[in-house]
Design goal:
The protein is an all-alpha fold and about 110 residues long. The chain is built from 6 helices and no strands. The N and C termini lie far apart (about 75 Å).
Length: about 110
């Protein structure tokens, strides 16, 4: 009976080690999404920089940003303890459909 317990314990330990190793391979084997554009399909930093530049200086080229922000209810102040710019980054990252429209406007207005 002691030998059977030892064999059973050894098998259980081996199966546990194999399961753990497989779990590690699955996590490691998944594609890395290190860059936001890998997930979103666009670089939110570029859009945030457009908006910061617009905030500093309104031009005929970037005037569409004000209309876009109004039409899409983009927050103009920080929300939930975030700064305005962090709120903008959150909004840019969580409103893909609206940003797809923004990117068309951006190109039409020569911001590149």
């Amino acid at each position: 009976i002691r030998i059977m317990k030892k064999i059973f314990f050894a098998i259980a330990l081996s199966l546990g080690a194999i399961s753990y190793a497989n779990a590690q391979v699955n996590v490691v084997g998944q594609p890395a999404h290190d860059q936001p554009e890998d997930v979103l399909g666009y670089n939110p930093d570029i859009i945030l920089n457009d908006w910061k530049n617009w905030e500093q200086e309104q031009t005929t080229q970037n005037a569409f940003i004000a209309t876009f922000m109004t039409d899409h209810s983009v927050p103009t102040t920080g929300l939930y303890g975030l700064t305005k710019h962090n709120t903008w980054m959150w909004w840019i990252s969580n409103n893909q459909e609206a940003i797809a429209q923004y990117l068309v406007l951006r190109e039409e207005n020569g911001l590149e």
